[in-house]
């Protein structure tokens, strides 16, 4: 594999990780809020 190919591959991996992070972070926050709300409802009843 040539240097350019390795460089392109590393950039693609970095972009994918950033994209994955952007998808998972808000979803994790929403899930966390949802869990807190359901826990609060469960404790109140």
Task: Describe the structure in your own words.
- The mean pLDDT is 87.
- The chain is 93% helix and 0% strand.
- It is rod-shaped.
- The N and C termini lie far apart (62 Å).
- The protein has one helix spanning 3-44.
- With 45 residues, it is mainly alpha-helical.
Question: In short, what is this structure?
Answer:
The chain has one helix spanning 3-44. It has 45 residues and is mainly α.
State the secondary-structure class: mainly alpha
Q: Give the distance, in angstroms, between the N- and C-terminal Cα atoms.
A: 62 Å
How many H/I helical runs? 1
Number of strands: 0
Defining traits:
1 helix, mainly alpha, rod-shaped, single chain, 45 residues
SSE order and pairing:
Layout: H1 3-44
């Amino acid at each position: 594999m040539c240097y350019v190919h390795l460089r392109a591959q590393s950039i693609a991996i970095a972009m994918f990780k950033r994209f994955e992070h952007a998808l998972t972070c808000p979803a994790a926050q929403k899930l966390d809020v949802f869990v807190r709300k359901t826990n609060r409802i469960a404790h109140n009843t």
